[in-house]
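Q: What structure does this chain adopt?
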Amino acid sequence: MQDSHIKKKTTYLVSSCLIGLCTRYDGVISPDQKCIEFLEGTNWIPVCPEQLGGLATPRPKAMLCEGNGHDVLQGNARVTTEEGENVSENFIRGAEQVLDLARRLAVDGIVLKSRSPSCAVHDNTGVTAALLQLHNFQLIEFG
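A:
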């Protein structure tokens, strides 16, 4: 039986690259100390939309073309690798997987990686961030 006066810990989904997991496109492990400090005392679950969408690590660098993540979701832009391969479907599939997890786990917020074609919240919103914004999740950006 749960005691009603015990406060539930805040729970976040977090871009796994921010906490030092090997999920960055280039395979480099680069934890973000400010993000790790922010998550202290909370529950957090690492996610990588690009891996959830079926892409490997390492993988070719990808970028948004002809718009932002909102435009990709509407079919008016795409995500391509440096070699020109269209990986929009992988990015959309990964975004949908993160949305599904966020809903199932009823998270309090989602911590995302800046300057990412999946996760950027500001300055050219990524595909995952755009989908989560459409569903009114609280987004926090690091990195």
